[in-house]
Amino acid sequence: MTATPASPLGFIGLGVMGEPMALNLAKAGTPLLVWNRSPAKSRILAAAGAAVAKDAAEVFARCETIILMLVNEAAIDAVLCRGTADFAKNVARRTIVHMGTTTADYSGGLEADIRAAGGSYVESPVSGSRKPAELAQLVAMLAGEATATERVRPLLQPMCRDAVICGPVPTGLLMKFAVNLFMITMVTGIAEAMHFAESYHLDIAKLAAILNASPMASPVSCVKAVKLAAGDFAPQASVPDVLNNSRFIVEAARKVGIASPLIDVCYALYGETLALGLNTLDMVAVIRAIEQRTAALA
Question: Of the residues 136, 158, 213, 284, which has the maximum number of CB atoms within 10 A of its CB?
Fold first, then answer.
């Protein structure tokens, strides 16, 4: 009897983060079936050895485990056909791995719907932006039923430096919110430090060198300090993404009635950055909102 070949790993969503993540899977030899609304991104994966589906429905039909790296809740619902008769067909007897960032409440509701339809669900947001994604240095935070998370965890190895099982849904996303709270306030602090230094006509390249040699230095702070010193606003983590993440954190804090003074300020500043029309730039563009506040003091 001829053995039935194992189904490929499905991957839907080849955006800023999804493309390098899927590429790392393909380069590691993972049998991969991908789909993206923009065909150009799919061609990049095809060149790396991945199979390309004609539509999302083909991915669900052929794959037992499907990774979703989609931009928002509406995109996830649309791909899954949630709220339609096709939803159960897409998720039954399959494991859906949600690796994007949404609200915790949304993820909890999605898990309930998928399990009711006969599927399994793993929440697995990642810590890291495009550069760590390219280098397979992401950290995944998994949540869900123990059997599902243990089954999914080794599949993430080609994309992630580490994968930590956090507990039931939505502890993966809540853990990411805690991580992002630190990251967003840190990068905003570096931007404010650069603005302070520029205001006193200090050498900001030297400031970046000092920060990067200091005990506070981290891979993220080193990259962002250099970007600010060079005036390099090419996106790694975009302003709209950081604004959305800030909102998720603020809303989660309000839900349990805790103070969040630092992220509250950052949320306001990234809103001001977006209002300046800087939506295509990296999060370090928050320095422009800080500069605008300074100008208002004059």
Answer: 284
